[in-house]
Amino acid sequence: MTDFYAVIGNPIAHSKSPWIHAEFSRQTGQDMQYEAILAPVDAFAATVAVFRERGGKGMNVTVPFKLEACKISRRLTRRADVAQAVNTLVFSADGILGDNTDGAGLVRDIMINLEFPLAGKRILLMGAGGAARGVVLPLLEHSPSVLTIANRTKQKAHLLQQQFSRYGNIVSGDYADLGGEKFDLVINATSASLKGRVPPLPAGIFADESMAYDMMYGDGRTPFLQFAKQQGASRLTDGIGMLVEQAAESFFLWRGIRPETDRVIRGLRNL
Ligand code: NDP
To answer: 20 to 30 A from 198, CA-CA: which of 176, 177, 179, 271?
Structure first.
């Protein structure tokens, strides 16, 4: 019998998740279908309920519903509970389980696909919204020497620092506070790239052999990556690998099988 899954968001037409999960199910021989569902901004819970009644087994959740998804979950995995944001729902007779696979997807892309170890590294995370919140704990679990969180609204960066400080060495501030510092890995978790902007980073923040990682994906030439190239970052990467890896984590949660991601990442880059 075919099992039904979906990604829910607003907007959703741009989502690559249906293509990714179709590749995963073909590759692993799973009998499943995966669609994209546009939910009205004021009707997230009702739209999820309708999908469940239709026999849906699980959903991915994207902007702007990750916090609401947390609230409708009866149980949360530890990583979703710590992040207080959910991007994966699993439906069962027990109710809804909420998980967050964004951070695991990011860390797997950086450490395994890109072969960039995090232990002892100086990491700068730009942004303090839903995406940043989901990746702080998984980054800290790999023992960077420091994780600096910088955000336009400084107070939100401070709040994240307070929330996560017991898990590792975190510093927070705004972009003006970064003058004179150098980082081995700079991750852009802001939505500035969507508007063709780059957060106001001071010059000279990229250390030798550093990596610039933009969670936004596209043609691999986001405004942040162009800035990083001019500033001498050694390695530049967009968020396609993270997107595929977080999807693979969700797929594993639903189906108990881990799909191969290499070919899917390459396929997505060539679409
Ligand atoms: P949110 O709306 O929750 O947060 C947006 C963040 O961007 C805030 O920290 C905001 O700062 C900051 N920001 C927005 N505009 C600017 C600007 N012009 N200059 C500086 N900072 C700015 O968004 P999300 O966290 O959900 O998503 C962030 C990005 O991550 C998006 O591009 C999204 O597509 C991407 N993403 C990619 C994933 C992947 O798998 N590759 C997974 C999840 C997200 P302030 O607090 O001051 O408003």
So the answer is: 271
